[in-house]
Fold this sequence. Notes:
heterodimer; A: alpha+beta; Immunoglobulin-like; 2 domains; 4-stranded mixed sheet; 4-stranded antiparallel sheet; 3 helices; about 35% helix; B: alpha/beta; Glutaredoxin; 5-stranded mixed sheet; two-stranded antiparallel sheet; 5 helices; 7 strands
Amino acid sequence: MRTLLISLLAAIAVSMPALADDAPEPTAERSALDAEVQSLRREVVDLNRDLFMLEEDLLFPASTQIAVFVSMDIGTFFALDSVQIKVDDKEVANYLYTDRELEALKRGGVHRIWLGNLKAGEHEVVAFFTGKGTHERDYKRGTTLKVEKGVGAKYVELKISDRVRKLQPEFVVRVWE
Amino acid sequence: MDSRNHRGRLAARLLLAVAIATTTLPASASEGTAAPDFALSSTAGTNYRLSEHRGEVVALVFWASWCGDCRRELERFERLRRTYGSVGLVVLGVNLDQEPERAAALAGAAGIGYPVLLDSGKNVSKTYRADDLPLIVLIDRQGAVRARHDALDEREERGLLVNLRDLIDE
Lengths: 177, 170
């Protein structure tokens, strides 16, 4: 919906110079119009940001918000294929990673795999990592975390890193308040 | 106070927009609507996400090994890929077989060089309403569905080519 609104506003903003092109304008007027268009474009960007924040505030208020992120550190011993997230034994996300996305993760990118709402109290978050381990062997590993959801937003980071000593991948779970 | 008023107005606009949109939601994957995004594994083990091909013209070819007309379309789109691949045409085969080996064997026999994505769970084919096979879905560079075709005869093939060239030229 937000995309639709923004597209509409962007289309209006983009069409402004096109309209201006139809009739030749004196230079001063043209530069004033350009400035106006630039200002309109800035407003569209600001409105997009406000709408995004508002949408998140409305759908995922801090009192119930929980987000799960996936990050990667090196990843020599594990080629990630997909991550499945279960909360209280219910699947909430199942994400297949493309080569481009893996490259972004290896360069330090962080992927928000799930954003949801949980009521206050204890919850079980289970993450299953599927991919290829060393020697191209299929590898599936699960990790479980008990999350105590309080009044503030909760952020869970699932980090895939290398345990060099054991030549094995390591899956680290961190909770951020 | 101003900020609260501003946010209040924004909230009202957002809710109004949602209300309007929910009364006029278009059918999924119909012509003119945004192509629903998906990610699938290919027979080669590589994962593909449709949205990563934004900026290119994408032809989705839904097929299965038990579909008689499908092989002709697979071969047709291999020829089209060779002709128009360099100017931005991406062909993705979406196979509905339960066994990936059958899909890989048939694709190999047909000599196709584009990825064959495995939709054994039928989630993507349901979203794209691939009730009759083969189904060809043409997606423009902005990610909107522009045309849907089933098995093509000679006249329809000409129509497809016109559609395809228009999309490539956009």
